[in-house]
Amino acid sequence: MLFALISCFSIRLQSQTNTVAKKEASKKARLAVSTFINLPIGIFAETHFAGAGFEVTKANTLLTKPNKKISYSYNGGFDYFIGKKESTSSYTYKYPGYKVIHLAAGIQYLSHARFSIGINGGPGLSIYNGSTRFCIVGKIATRYDARQKFSLLVGLKMNSEFTTRSLWNFYAGVSFKL
Length: 178
Fold this sequence. Notes:
Order of helices and strands: HEHEEEEEEEEE
Number of domains: 1
CATH class: Mainly Beta
Strand content: over 45%
Shape: elongated
């Protein structure tokens, strides 16, 4: 009788620890990787062509609970813009590439089961012509979840250094949840 009681108790404890382990495994930090095309606008478009970029985001910040419309998001990324060639008189000059490394945090509003809009901002480093400067990066983006692990992105991004005007660009791309 004592053996049967101990056996039942140990089986119950083992099943509870498996349930806790499964819950903790499902909370693991999964990542979403986004790649996109950047299109400079305004004065930035006068000196640079389109560029490319990528970001890494913690995926479970992108997926809110069914009753929750607002969630926090954070990411890190890299953008690169190709410099244009310019000719004046008989001299041709090519603008150097412009790079930005950034970290951002913000909020995301889930307006529909598959559609969200978010705003992020944070610090960054801009690298241009051999010099590195501190900058502030801000962006507003929309996300459409086309499938469970695949999303489409469209947004507007701003890089602002203290000594120059803000540089604006549109971007569009895709995101894959790993």
